[in-house]
What does this fold into?
Amino acid sequence: MTNNPWGERAEQAEKFRLALQPLAVRIRATLAGESGDADASEGLSSDELRQRHLLLWSSATLHLLDALQALNRDVWEADAPDAAAIHRAAGRVEGVVERWLRGFIEVRDAYPGPEAAPVRALLLALYRHSLGELCDWLEQLFDTLQHPLARVAPERLAGPDPVHVELECILNLTAPPELIQALLPTPQPDRGNSLWSLAAAFGIGWMLGDDD
It folds into this structure.
């Protein structure tokens, strides 16, 4: 077993961390950014704004889960993923998240009219919440890749023999408090309330250590 706790996967773990780190930086910078000029959302009604962005958000969410499942298959579960496979997997995730970011920027910079202000506020909360959860997960993943032993109970490492430990980083996408509050006390089963019970979870795991 090598000195690196990832063993033979040490190089792949570092390449993957470096491939996705710019995405986390971009998410944080976008969430902290200021509004720009009005864009295509200007003049949209409350219903149009809601339908446009709930569709964009939900479609991107489904594609994100697909991209993460592909990441799991092509990187984490692969015997020896090469640099090209790692960058393809990271690129798929980045491409989907870019749709969330564009949607957030569009809503943030929109001036749809006073009657649509409550809908705009809820959509901003939805984008901020989802992007924040994703970025928190990415940062937890980076920390795990850099310091995997910090995630392992000391007693697991106390013995003289090498151990194999599977670490998981779970991504949970939940509805923001503002949306839940808006739907209380009796959410109606219409399209706008379809996020009431949203809870999408995805986990990745990699074994620490070599196989021999």
